[in-house]
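quick q for whoever's on today - can somebody do inverse folding on this one?? i tried earlier but teh output was garbage lol. tokens:
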């Protein structure tokens, strides 16, 4: 089954490219950029990745990404991920990035945009992969800062496939970003948002109502609200679920407790994704295999999940026809 899952053409819709930074590359970039890390060895980094919740992960995620300073760093980061994803049978990747986490360190917008775009073009040429770019806003910072970033990103509007919303969820409800998402809508940029990861089902409804999103990132809290589940089933608005992430951030206790089977049973349009593969113990293939080990799904279910992602990906119709 693992061989079959590797060969199944998979589409990744929920990947923070900064969360694909493996400890080995973190050390290499720290040396290249003369940045001190609070870790003595790669083993020490791995030992530190023992998270109690989302915030405990975010603290190390923002710490690790300080080694990213130049366009070449972002290129190397994304290329390393594309190589691994290609080996795992991933045929389309939508990478999100957090410009505010870089701007705050003096890394101007052009650096991630140009480095990531160059890697995306190279992955398309070398691996025949298709790619898309999502610019995410940090919800635990002021909405005015997100608005400034959106305006500053105007030279790249053509290459932004969507804007997103991530970081610490509880206490930062979607409505805080109503004006920013309204501006993105006016610019014709599609919108996605993390909702219902650690936050309540009400944040999912609010993100749909106020931010007019076309996809929900995570959304595992939806089962708390029957009317919302009904709405998600009827609208077929997709959820980008990240099972290994949910276990590592203690959103669920173990894989077998994960609500994915219940979500499928209720007819919600779910997809499988990796979120931050360097921090959560695996990429796309590991997430698929973990679901097989926990739920024993047959090939039909995995084809449906991969097919759901193809249906809702930011890709051309010609590319979609190639993949179905
Ligand atoms: N940023 C990177 N990974 C995230 C996650 N799982 N939830 C919220 N923000 C994130
Ligand atoms: Zn995420």
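ok took a stab at it. sequence:
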């Amino acid at each position: 089954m693992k061989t079959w899952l590797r060969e199944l053409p998979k589409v990744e819709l929920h990947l923070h490219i900064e969360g694909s930074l493996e400890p080995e590359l973190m050390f290499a970039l720290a040396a290249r950029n003369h940045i001190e890390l609070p870790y003595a060895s790669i083993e020490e980094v791995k030992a530190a990745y023992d998270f109690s919740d989302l915030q405990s992960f975010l603290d190390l995620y923002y710490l690790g990404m300080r080694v990213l300073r130049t366009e070449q760093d972002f290129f190397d980061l994304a290329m390393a991920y594309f190589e691994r994803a290609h080996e795992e049978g991933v045929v389309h990747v939508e990478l999100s990035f957090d410009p505010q986490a870089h701007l705050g360190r003096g890394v101007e917008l052009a650096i991630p945009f140009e480095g990531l775009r160059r890697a995306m073009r190279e992955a398309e040429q070398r691996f025949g992969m298709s790619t898309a770019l999502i610019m995410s806003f940090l919800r635990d910072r002021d909405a005015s800062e997100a608005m400034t970033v959106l305006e500053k990103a105007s030279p790249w509007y053509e290459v932004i496939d969507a804007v997103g919303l991530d970081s610490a969820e509880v206490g930062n409800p979607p409505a805080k970003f109503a004006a920013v998402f309204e501006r993105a809508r006016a610019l014709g940029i599609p919108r996605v948002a993390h909702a219902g990861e650690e936050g309540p089902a009400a944040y999912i409804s609010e993100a749909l109502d106020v931010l007019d999103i076309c996809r929900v990132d995570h959304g595992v809290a939806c089962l708390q609200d029957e009317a919302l589940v009904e709405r998600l089933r009827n609208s077929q608005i997709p959820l980008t679920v990240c099972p290994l992430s949910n276990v590592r951030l203690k959103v669920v206790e173990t894989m077998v407790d994960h609500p994915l089977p219940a979500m499928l049973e209720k007819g919600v349009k779910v997809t499988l994704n990796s979120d931050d593969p360097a921090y959560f113990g695996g990429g796309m293939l590991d997430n698929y295999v973990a679901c097989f080990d926990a739920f024993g799904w047959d090939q039909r279910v995995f084809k449906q999940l991969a097919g759901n992602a193809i249906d809702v990906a930011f890709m051309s119709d010609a590319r979609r026809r190639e993949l179905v």
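fwiw The beta strands are 10-16, 90-97, 130-138, 162-166, 192-195, 215-218, 239-241, 270-272. also The pocket of adenine (ligand 1) is lined by residues 16, 19, 54, 61, 166-167, 194, 197, 245, 275-276 (CB under 6 Å). so keep that in mind when u check it
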